[in-house]
Amino acid sequence: MIKRLFTLAFKNIFRARNRTMITIVAYAFGIGLYIFMNSLLTGIYNTSVKNIIDKDISKIKVMGNDYNLDDVVPLPETYFEYTKYTGISNQYEYSSPDIQFIANIITSDISTKAVIRGVEPDKADSVFHYSNDIVEGVWIDRCKDNEVVIGGRIAHSLNLKLGDMFTLVFKNRDGNFDAFDLDVGGIISTGNPNIDRLSIFMPLAKTQEFMAANGLISGISIKTKNHETEKIKINETFTGVSAYTWEDLSEGFLNLDKMKKGFSSLLIFMIVIVATVGIFNTILLGMFERKREIGMLKAMGMSRRQIGLLFSIEGGIIGFIGSLGGIAFGLLINLPFVIKGFDLSMYGEMDIGYPVQDVVKSTWGFEFIIPALILGVIIALIASWYPAMRAAKLEPVKTLRD
Amino acid sequence: MIKLENLKKTYNPGKIEVHALDNVSINIEEGEFLTVHGPSGSGKTTLLNILGCLDIATSGDYYFKERDVSKLSMSDLSNIRRINIGFIFQTYNLIPVLTAYENVELSLMLAHSKYKKEDILNAMDDVGIKDLAKRFPREMSGGQQQRVSIARALVKSPKLILADEPTANLDSENATMIMEAMKEMNEKYNVTFVFSTHDPLVMSFAKRLIKLKDGKIETDERK
Asked: Which residues are the signal sequence here (chain B) (predicted)?
């Protein structure tokens, strides 16, 4: 019987072909947007996470106890003695100590703020593979004494080229302002705007000297698996420092991601609602147009449940076809963004809140196919529930007379 | 097979009451071929609706095969219709998206979970439309559609077939053929036919004529 109900439902939905097709297209559009938006946002999210872990924070960062999560860089008061915590470096094969502070960079005509990152060249490279991101010149392990590696975007905005000189002005740990002339020895481009737009790299020893922080560091980046467990271990083992996961230090980005996904879901939900109204309308009109037929089916002994099921199946089929169409449509419009990506540089230097820049690639979105299909069919079933119930409750005596 | 005792059907009870049926008592035996006639508003359709378990009486008793159906739920009435009662309407009421064969099959499928293709083809053959099995209703004449609706009513081997003005939309030639087909089925399978009609042709085929007036039986004649 179910098979016959499906056959009948399938034939019924194409009785008003134009109306059904419009509904299916609208539904497919909503589902397609769901696939596309989620794939794109997931692509942006994945690239952002990769940029944070691979180029900025790593999985865990150990900071001084007084470090405030709201600070862009650790304040000099939170620096701690590296020698006391060599156990951390010994315990983790891939770890990189650093000092970070904010400085002004001044060229002959422009000035801007930057984050100075003092790192041990080999250790930083083992964690972040910065040497692979050098686009001009060399990584700091091969720089001359007065040379530093500068983020590609800062170099571009300050019009600095390899070998050019600029002045670094900053306040050291003692509260005194200091200034040094430095040369560009390398230009780095990682894809992470925190590095490319903001950072200047130099050896750790030099930053300790600049900041009058001999033997001190502001943090240790650690690359490890099971970072949640390792964070707990470090916090239990070492006093005077605190370990944070990349998630702890990226709260702003993660919240923004949640908010944007929420907003996008809301937008998609509204589109799907409009499409759902289409299904509701299609099934309801079908019910009104076929009142006499419903009466006949009831006269033949079809139960209320079977009549309701027939109309629900009709809605479900529209939802299923619409969802399949939407999946195909979503994957298709997503395809160029998977292959060529989405070029954020068209927004210039605008901060979109994600640690990404230039071209971001969308994910294939295959993981959204099943949810889209289930969601599509369930919403369609919900949309057809009311017309189905009305059809089920029709009295044959009245409808046969219509 | 059917026993109606003091059946009343009142519309708008408590307000301006309309007595569609007023103390109707009838016995209908298995294999009867009877018509219910009378002027418009006399209660013919109401009586057929109650006999067909599509509607329930306001008061009185209705026994179908010795079972009191006057107090059954809509679901139970639906089960009685599904297995025991076939309907034929003036406007045929075929499902337009189904072929003639599928229309007949649907009726059988609802009544019996197991059936054979031959059962459907035999029912269609009985009314002379076996060759039209693959045609859709829009591809058939009125007479052919009415034959499909007869096959649809017959295929589940019901005890009772109710026909509401079955010849009203047919020319006299087709009407005669349809009536002859139903008469033949009545004789062949001993199935009971009850017609609601104005048509003298239908009445000429009937073995029993019940005339209603103002919801009451005015005459009940057997030929």
From this structure: none
